[in-house]
Amino acid sequence: MPSSTKKRRNPRQRSSTARQKKELQPKMNLRSNAIKRRTKRDEPTIYPMVFAGPLRRLYAFTIDLGLIMMVIYSVAPLANGNLFNEKAAPQDIVFFLGYFIVPTIIWGRTPGKWVAGIVVVDSDGRTPGPAAIPREMIGKLVSYLSFGVGILWLILDQKRQGWHDKIAGTYVVDNPYSGGPKFLKDFLKLGEKKAKEIEKSDGATKKIKI
């Protein structure tokens, strides 16, 4: 008999280790999926630079105006003169600015823009954040005080920027991830322009000039 003999592995031990590995695999997969989801959530959404046309922006403004009027007529009788009258001008200004500024800072869109499927972004395609403050306060004041020329300017501008957008360096683009009735969004997609198409047309005009 040889003095040194090789130890035979117990088949039961093999099966137990294999089972442990199989049990650990789905747990590891779940952890990796959870990490991927967290990183995706943490990353800011980059919207495609498809500049929204005038009709969709008018549609969004109409919805916002309708919602504001509903709030005024429902809250004013209950406010006992503290809101929505001549004596409550400061409170009214805070309400109007809050309606437009706060959602634009956080989500890049008001409820009207959400329904219309458009969003305010910066030059990188991300929501503007604090850049919404000069856009809504200074830019729109200048646009309206110019007898609306600053607002109507977006009809002529290639990138559909009004004066308030140019002041803040923002754009209003299509939001493919938004809600709202799709048939209306498709119907109002007139006058929309892509950034790539504008770059090509600019390049072509430069070649012709040369």
Structural summary, described in words:
This protein is mainly α. It has one domain (50-209). Helices cover 60% and strands 6% of the residues. It is built from nine helices and four strands. The protein has helices at residues 11-42, 54-75, 89-106, 111-116, 132-145, 149-156, 163-168, 182-187, 195-209; strands at 50-51, 118-121, 171-174, 193-194. The strands form two sheets. Strands 1-4 form a two-stranded antiparallel ribbon. It has a two-stranded antiparallel ribbon with strand order 2-3. α3 (89-106) packs across α5 (132-145). The protein is globular and about 65 Å long. The mean pLDDT is 79.
Secondary structure elements and pairings:
Elements (H helix, E strand, L loop, with lengths): L10 H32 L7 E2 L2 H22 L13 H18 L4 H6 L1 E4 L10 H14 L3 H8 L6 H6 L2 E4 L7 H6 L5 E2 H15 L1
Helix pairs in contact: 3-5
Summarize this entry quickly.
The protein has 210 residues and is mainly alpha-helical. Helices cover 60% and strands 6% of the residues.
Summary keywords:
210 residues; mainly alpha; two-stranded antiparallel sheet; 6% strand
How are helices and strands ordered from N to C? HEHHHEHHHEHEH
Strand content: 5-15%
Task: Report mean pLDDT, rounded to a whole number.
Answer: 79
The end-to-end span amounts to: 98 Å
Q: Class by helix and strand content? A: mainly alpha
Helix count, DSSP H or I runs of 4 or more residues: 9
Q: Can you tell me the overall shape?
A: globular
**Helical residue percent band:** 55-70%
Tell me the domain tally. 1
* Sheet having the most strands: 2 strands, antiparallel
Spatial extent as radius of gyration? 28 Å
In order across it, which strands form the biggest sheet? 1-4
Oligomeric state of the chains in view: single chain
Total strands: the figure is 4
Note poorly predicted spans.
none
